[in-house]
Amino acid sequence: MAKCAICKKPFEKKFTTFQKTCSAPTCILEFSRQKKAKEYKATTRKMKAEFNANDRAYNTRKAKEACHAYIRFRDRQQPCISCQRHHEGQYHAGHYLSVGSCTSLRFNEYNIHKQCAPCNNHLSGNQVHYRVNLIDKIGLDHVEWLEGKQEVQNWSIEDLQEIRSYYKEKLAELKRATE
């Protein structure tokens, strides 16, 4: 005897060996509804994955998330780049030169460092102190290079996917090295 997938009562299979429910109409209808819902979810999930694979905004966001996760982990022991404080608040991956003003440095590790939320959000990056401490951290040559003329960068979807996988792998390596 088999058990009904819906009401869980034992029943004898009458129609096929693949019969999942008893002969009660409510169980048959409910099983059919659940099956259609599963198929719909699977189809929707597949369509969403295909859409996301070809969506620039989605891939940019995912590359940014991977890059910023790496930066926050890389600088986890260091204080905020701007105010040099250690505190219990939230930390961001703050850009020295904003993404809006210099898109080519969006994923550049010299341009992104751990920054506390007050400096990043409320003090617009606290740029004066950021620059002073950035010179101490990476050197004047690198800061001057960042401030120099940069080429405009338009990343393709494939580039963004590579950037995402690059930073995910870098983060995994760094976590393995610190264990």
Describe this structure in words.
The protein is mainly α and 179 residues long. 54% of the residues lie in helices and 8% in strands. The protein has six helices and four strands, in the order ββααββαααα. The strands form two sheets. Strands 1-2 form a two-stranded antiparallel sheet. Helix 2 packs parallel to helix 6 and helix 4 packs across helix 5. The N and C termini lie far apart (53 Å). 21% of the residues are buried. The mean pLDDT is 93.
What letter string, H or E per element, gives the SSE order? Answer: EEHHEEHHHH
End-to-end Cα distance:
53 Å
Overall pLDDT score: 93
| Tally of separate helices | 6
Shape: elongated
Low-confidence stretches: none
Q: Report the count of strand segments.
A: 4
- Major sheet strand order: 1-2
- For this structure, the quaternary state is single chain
Computed Rg: 26 Å
What share of residues are in beta strands? 5-15%
For the largest beta-sheet, the strand count, sense and barrel status come to:
2 strands, antiparallel
* Class by alpha and beta content: mainly alpha
Q: Residue share in helices?
A: 40-55%
In short, what is this structure?
With 179 residues, the chain is mainly alpha-helical.
Which key features would you list for this structure?
mainly alpha; 8% strand; 4 strands; elongated; 54% helix; 179 residues; two-stranded antiparallel ribbon; two-stranded antiparallel sheet
Topology:
Blueprint: E1 2-3, E2 10-11, H1 25-53, H2 56-74, E3 91-95, E4 112-116, H3 117-122, H4 127-138, H5 140-147, H6 157-178
Antiparallel strand pairs: 1-2, 3-4
Helix pairs in contact: 2-6, 4-5
